[in-house]
């Protein structure tokens, strides 16, 4: 079991290293096939040390997913606040990050995390939080003339979620690379709600 109290610098660094390593292995090989032994071996630490920090694989997966989402959000916020980027540039950066991430992810990862209730619960809460951020972001894009006014963007987001659910349910990733699916999906979706001004910016970046 984990010890109580504030972690030392070494302990915190080890915790961060475990999270980065574990999520990389989960994404690459799928969750089921990666054992706690595999993670401790890659890190060259004892299994006991690993279990002192994370009681089980689900707890480690949950912490890894949380850490991964937090890092992505921080990277996007840092990009958006530097260099006076417009909304199209921010979206392009998001797509670039996602494409790079998907290049190292097995489709098994997406299907298998659904087996862990606590992880699913977190993802749903995170999506609800992200929805508010996305709607605020889109409203800024509307005000700056990049996105079409008058659309119900709640419906647009739900339709986007529906497409990705279809991809997973039908295992479309077994027919096409998941990067190609994502690229086509976002290209069509983004063009659908961009104004002529927004499309001009899209063509510059894609």
Structure commentary:
The protein is built from ten helices and no strands. The model has no long low-confidence stretch (mean pLDDT 91). 74% of the residues lie in helices and 0% in strands. The chain is globular, with a radius of gyration of 19 Å. The termini are far apart. It has 206 residues and is mainly alpha-helical.
Short summary of the structure?
By secondary structure, this protein is an all-alpha fold.
What is the CA-based Rg, rounded? 19 Å
Query: Topology as H/E string?
Result: HHHHHHHHHH
Question: What does the main sheet amount to?
Answer: none
- Average pLDDT confidence is 91
Strand content: under 5%
The coarse overall form would be globular
Q: What's the N-to-C terminus distance?
A: 50 Å
Q: Can you count the beta strands? A: 0
Model regions low in confidence, pLDDT < 50 over at least 5 residues: none
Q: Count every helix, treating DSSP H or I runs of 4 or more residues as helices.
A: 10
Assembly category: single chain
Structural class: mainly alpha
The portion of residues assigned to helices is: over 70%
Write the layout of secondary structure elements.
Elements: H1 9-29, H2 36-43, H3 47-53, H4 57-81, H5 87-102, H6 107-112, H7 117-143, H8 153-169, H9 178-193, H10 196-205
Keywords:
single chain; 206 residues; mainly alpha; 74% helix; globular
